[in-house]
Amino acid sequence: MTKNETTAIEVYNADGLLQALKRKETFIAIKGDYKSEVRNLIRTKFSDKELMGFELGSAGTIGITAEVFYQIANFFSNEPEEKKQIESRLRRYNMKINDDNEMILYLRDLDY
Hints:
Largest sheet: 4 strands, mixed
Strand order of the largest sheet: 1-2-4-3
Shape: globular
Structural class: alpha+beta
Oligomer: single chain
Helix content: 40-55%
Number of helices: 6
């Protein structure tokens, strides 16, 4: 790996996180008080094991159905547009807590 592939981009607020998510950064370090809000957003998504169980149990159709429902719910949501974009893009990431002041998001693809 090159240095850029292992360096986490540091973010402290929603604007910084959204920009990093749009660039599909491999590692994103959430620092400061903003990490508690991101932790709450991450908790709402299924784990990889849960997703795999659903996919296997439904012969792959649940993923498509769930995405349709997610997009409909997101469309009618009263949340700010920035938060909806962050929630949508966060589904591609897993989370690791480094210490009390830092949370690392990393692309789910790295687990495979």
